[in-house]
Specification:
88% of the residues lie in helices and 0% in strands. The protein is mostly helical and 369 residues long.
Length: 369
């Protein structure tokens, strides 16, 4: 028998076998549309149930995400101690002790001062409102919308805490919840830091052997970028807080300097809008205290934000986040809409990781076609 005939014979012998396999593989789906609908409906219900489970543990997943983010930020310090001969377990312990001591010093040294100054700000707020009402433009706005009457009633009525937190019990529950979440984040961060090399190694082993080296290189770069971003954001916020502290003492607002500088530093961590919010708060209090002081605050923060945006931020973030300004704005807005402040903090390094993957993986494949 010739080869074409043999090939034809092979085809005729294989075709029924393949048809039988297809028939045995999906017998119900080919015979009954009800079975087809039942299978896919069951899959949809399973996906809906799993989605509900994820939503129910959403707060826990956010804590895990924050702990991983902090671990990536603290990892450069751990590696710095490791390069000087300290074992990783001891390096993690030293870094966590430094962090806990810094937090303890903040609460012991600064929290009482901040609380006292915040109390003074709240006590002086009605007086500041009275002084602002002497301004003609402000009087016109107040005549239309009665803003100051409502604000004065809220501040002097003793219902600020009740409106914000639901009373004394609500304040206590929120404080207890914050302490519990902080403890969970610290413990998770410790575990993430201690096991980060093993976690990375296990994750990289999921990639095929032919691509494992490339995946390892990109993964290490992403983690290094996240760590550099966290360290850079902290450094930029500290610069804003320290400069605000010095400036407020120089212009005569030393009575509120520590509290306002802490507010500026905390808000400056929020991408894009945090620095502006802190400047607005300080400038408003400056104008309420004295118009000249408010003008000084306005000039200082306009100048400082330009200096921060064009000098400090590019120099600090040049090694971690190399993104266009438009992409940073979009990432921050999307992250804030999804997860609030935490989402805004995580959005920029996430966008940087996606851009890195696009440059290193997608573009070479597109160019090779």
């Amino acid at each position: 028998m010739s080869r074409p005939a043999q090939r034809a014979g092979r085809v005729t012998r294989r075709a029924p076998h393949d048809t039988d396999q297809a028939t045995v593989r999906w017998p119900l789906l080919h015979r009954s549309p009800f079975a087809f609908g039942f299978v896919f409906a069951a899959g949809a219900l399973l996906a809906f149930w799993l989605g509900g489970l994820l939503l129910s543990i959403g707060s826990t997943l956010i804590l895990v995400l924050v702990a991983a983010f902090l671990a990536a930020g603290l990892n450069p310090m751990v590696e710095w101690f490791g390069r000087r001969g300290l074992a990783r377990s001891w390096a993690v312990l030293v870094v966590m002790l430094i962090l806990l001591v810094a937090i303890a010093l903040f609460f012991v040294a600064l929290v009482p001062v901040i609380a006292d100054q915040v109390t003074k700000i709240v006590d002086n707020a009605p007086h500041w409102f009275d002084e602002l009402q002497h301004n003609g433009t402000v009087r016109d706005l107040d005549r239309r919308y009665h803003v100051f009457d409502k604000a004065r009633t809220a501040l002097t009525g003793g219902r600020v805490g009740s409106a914000l937190f639901g009373g004394v019990l609500g304040v206590g529950l929120k404080v207890l919840s914050f302490v519990a979440n902080a403890f969970i984040v610290i413990v998770l961060t410790l575990y993430f830091l201690a096991g980060l090399p093993r976690v990375k190694r296990s994750a990289y082993e999921l990639a095929p052997a032919s691509r494992r080296e490339r995946v390892t290189d990109i993964g290490d770069r992403i983690i290094a970028n996240v760590g550099a971003y966290v360290s850079g954001a902290f450094l930029v916020a500290m610069c804003a807080g320290i400069s605000s502290l010095i400036f407020l003492f120089l212009i005569g607002l030393g009575e509120y300097a520590v509290a306002l500088a802490a507010v500026v530093a905390l808000l400056d961590v929020i991408p894009m809008i945090g620095a502006t919010l802190g400047a607005v708060i300080v400038t408003a209090i400056g104008f309420a205290t004295d118009p000249a002081t408010g003008l000084y605050c306005l000039i200082f923060y306009i100048a400082y934000q330009q200096f921060e945006n064009y000098v400090i931020y590019p120099r600090v973030m040049s090694r971690s986040v190399d993104l266009p300004g438009l992409l940073i704005v979009i990432a921050a807005v999307v992250g804030a809409s999804l997860l609030g402040v935490i989402g805004a903090l995580l959005a920029i390094p996430t966008a940087a990781a996606m851009v890195l993957l696009h440059k290193e993986v997608i573009l070479p494949r597109q160019s090779a076609r």
